[in-house]
Amino acid sequence: xxxxxxxxxxxxxxxxxxxxxxxxxxxxxxxxxxxxxxxxxxxxxxxxxxxxxxxxxxxxxxxxxxxxxxxxxxxxxxxxxxxxxxxxxxxxxxxxxxxxxxxxxxxxxxxxxxxxxxxxxxxxxxxxxxxxxxxxxxxxxxxxxxxxxxxxxxxxxxxxxxxxxxxxxxxxxxxxxxxxxxxxxxxxxxxxxxxxxxxxxxxxxxxxxxxxxxxxxxxxxxxxxxxxxxxxxxxxxxxxxxxxxxxxxxxxxxxxxxxxxxxxxxxxxxxxxxxxxxxxxxxxxxxxxxxxxxxxxxxxxxxxxxxxxxxxxxxxxxxx
Length: 320
Prior knowledge:
6-stranded parallel β-sheet, 9 helices, about 25% helix, about 25% strand
């Protein structure tokens, strides 16, 4: 079957390790289900895999792609939950949790096999492309906002780095949930787009906000960390799920954190139950993932190049 896969690890030039071509079809295994992929979406996780982060060389070649929607063996339209081993279903009792493509072949292919527990029904109101955007970036944003930040309608939130998948999701979900959302971006066009999606205002990174916020959604890391902490009201919460600009800020703002009793909460992905809630939320409210572009699988390299260059707003979807 045709697939996009990591053939080698290159930490400096990750796209050098990306190959497109034929790979063996997945084999049946007890407790697992094979899904015919209709759409799959790119994540920064795929680029990190090509750098060898979370992917060992002895696992190569590895089909990439942890987010997908398609049709299962019984003809049902489904969405995949990307965290393998979290439940204990389909894996050994001592196996640690992992994301699809860290241990098992991924979804940038015609077919993918996952534990049956990891398959959820796709709401009929969502297209395959829309559903394929949800399991990583949108689920991460959902958990950041509603589980780890604990914000409620009427609260205010700052989203750093508008344009990325998680940040875009946080803006849309926050607006739909009745939050007052502020956003930042270095790019003027992305700031305008953030406002169109529901942000009350969008600012350049580091700009002073109209008032301090209840929570900050942080995925940028070192470049925005100081601003994130300074933007919080006393007792506020910064939730961090990534550090695309690095994980060692020059100013950790420790004094401000303890003096104002701020909370710093780490957040990674989300549970199957949260993904089920997110799917229902999108179906019932009409909220839809923001898709930058859709490409056929055989043009996956274009999507990877765009993701690596940061020239996007929302998700890149590959169709099979």
